[in-house]
């Protein structure tokens, strides 16, 4: 069925909701009028209860029909770029809009997300065009080539040419109205009203989202026509990889120093993501994500078809001669003075909770975050020692002294229960104490590495990982020997 027909169906269902709701309200009003008109003293209590019940039933309908406001056209966190400051990007977008056959956006805004989107704020049920905004995620500019970005932007502009954005506001408002009715009906125990409109809401969302999925496939065709079939398919394949890589970057790098009160410098924030994508040690896993994206569970309520389905539809198109050569310019080349611009986007994306964090260079962030992580990891053995000794530990020397005094098995027995033997568990629990002592004595340091999170380097050739393991092996041996640990720290 054509997308336009399904769109008409969705709008008809939306109109049907208002007809049913208003009809339901009218019936309640007529019933109340009839009851109050024929009210007599003998039936006053029961009649008034029925009128009160009808008012209670009407409340969620009134809220859903009359009190749901039009969605606000609020810009997400980011930076709006002016044409005079970024002429090449604007020229690219305007040229793509001309090829797609639509009016260019009035605003381009860079956002800190693996996403691109367009919106429009039309009036009079979408009949009068409104302000158009295009959102471009900075991670896309970093991780895509120019032809791949062309495919992404042409896809979004295709939503304009298909008039998808004109009806989006109406669809969202209708969905919110239905949800409001169901939520208020359920919260107040009005099961009949809730069940009636819950079923209608499911039908409406299924139809409207099926329209959305077909709109996505139609916009993919615009991307293939403008940027080339292979570039459009390759861009789609890269999106799940970039999404996973950016989430990993935010979790394991950008916020790794959060507990230590540290953040990366805004001017180095997106440079870090570029470094992660270019790291030699990450290429195998990134390529695997590109070739084998995580499986997506599908439901009739999905707004987008699965990436695999979209890629298959593009690859079913006939070849157009525009192949991926590997020599394409990175999309970031479209921006002038991109370091300053991306720094502004990073600063605009900070949450209020970040106000008390200190921005530092990556090496300082690695040192602070690494030491804080070790301190936290020391809590496992410290808690066990507290339970065994009845007092807190004051450091590695105190722990070693307790072991020399014969407390090893008592401490090991109070470690969290695992499948490992107590002394094997003690080996792991004591490790952060030894590493922290090496860091604080200058024999080891955390250094920034894009191949490994919180990479620990040893200053003394003897103080390598194997030497640390050997010292810990001796510490939990029978009998325990604290000498190698003391020697490492003294060295």
TrEMBL record:
The keyword Protease applies. Residues 284-294 have a biased composition (Basic and acidic residues). The chain crosses the membrane at residues 12-31, 43-62. Keywords: Cell membrane, Hydrolase, Membrane, Metal-binding, Metalloprotease, Protease, Transmembrane, Transmembrane helix, Zinc. Its main location: membrane. Its cofactor is Zn(2+). It is found in: Cell membrane. It is a multi-pass membrane protein. InterPro entries: HtpX_protease, Peptidase_M48. Residues 284-307 are annotated as: Disordered. This is M48 family metallopeptidase. The lineage of its organism: Bacteria, Bacillati, Actinomycetota, Actinomycetes, Kitasatosporales. Residues 121-316 form the Peptidase M48 domain. It comes from the Bacteria. CDD domains: M48_Ste24p_like.
């Amino acid at each position: 069925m054509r997308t336009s027909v399904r769109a008409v169906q969705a709008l008809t269902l939306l109109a049907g909701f208002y007809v049913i709701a208003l009809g339901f309200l009218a019936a309640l009003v007529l019933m109340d009028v009839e009851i109050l008109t024929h009210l007599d003293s003998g039936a006053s209590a029961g009649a008034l209860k029925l009128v009160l019940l009808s008012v209670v039933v009407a409340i969620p309908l009134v809220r859903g029909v009359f009190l749901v406001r039009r969605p606000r056209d609020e810009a997400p966190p980011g930076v709006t770029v002016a044409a005079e400051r970024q002429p090449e990007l604007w020229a690219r977008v305007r040229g793509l809009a001309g090829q797609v056959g639509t009016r260019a956006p009035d605003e381009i805004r860079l956002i800190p997300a693996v996403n691109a989107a367009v919106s429009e704020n039309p009036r009079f049920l979408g009949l009068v065009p409104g302000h158009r905004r295009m959102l471009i995620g900075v991670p896309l500019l970093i991780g895509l080539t120019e032809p791949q970005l062309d495919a992404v932007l042409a896809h979004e502009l295709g939503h304009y040419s298909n008039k998808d954005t004109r009806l989006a506001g109406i669809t969202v408002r209708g969905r919110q109205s239905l949800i409001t009715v169901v939520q208020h009906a359920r919260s107040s125990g009005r099961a009949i009203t809730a069940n009636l409109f819950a079923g209608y809401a499911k039908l409406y969302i299924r139809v409207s989202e099926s329209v959305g999925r077909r709109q996505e496939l139609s916009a993919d065709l615009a991307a293939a026509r403008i940027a080339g079939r292979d570039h459009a398919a390759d861009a789609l394949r890269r999106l799940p990889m970039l999404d996973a890589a950016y989430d990993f970057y935010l979790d394991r790098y950008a916020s790794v120093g959060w507990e230590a009160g540290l953040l990366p410098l805004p001017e180095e924030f997106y440079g870090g993501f570029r470094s992660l994508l270019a790291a030699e040690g990450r290429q195998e896993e990134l390529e695997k994500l590109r070739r084998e994206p995580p499986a997506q569970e599908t439901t009739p309520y999905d707004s987008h078809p699965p990436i695999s389905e979209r890629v298959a539809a593009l690859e079913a198109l006939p070849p157009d001669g525009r192949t991926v050569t590997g020599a394409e310019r990175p999309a970031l080349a479209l921006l002038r003075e991109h370091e300053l611009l991306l720094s502004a986007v990073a600063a605009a994306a900070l949450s209020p909770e970040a106000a008390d964090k200190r921005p530092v260079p990556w090496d300082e962030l690695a040192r602070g975050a690494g030491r804080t992580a070790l301190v936290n990891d020391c809590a496992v053995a410290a808690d066990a020692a507290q339970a065994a000794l009845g007092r807190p530990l004051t450091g590695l020397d105190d722990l070693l002294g307790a072991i020399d005094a014969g407390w090893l098995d008592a401490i090991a027995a109070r470690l969290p229960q695992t499948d490992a033997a107590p002394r094997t568990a003690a080996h792991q629990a004591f490790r952060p104490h030894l590493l922290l002592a090496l860091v604080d004595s200058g024999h080891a340091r955390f250094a920034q590495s894009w191949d490994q999170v919180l990479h620990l380097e040893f200053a003394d050739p003897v103080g390598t990982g194997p030497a640390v393991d050997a010292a810990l092996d001796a510490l939990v041996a029978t009998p325990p020997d604290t000498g190698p640990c003391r020697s490492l720290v003294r060295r």
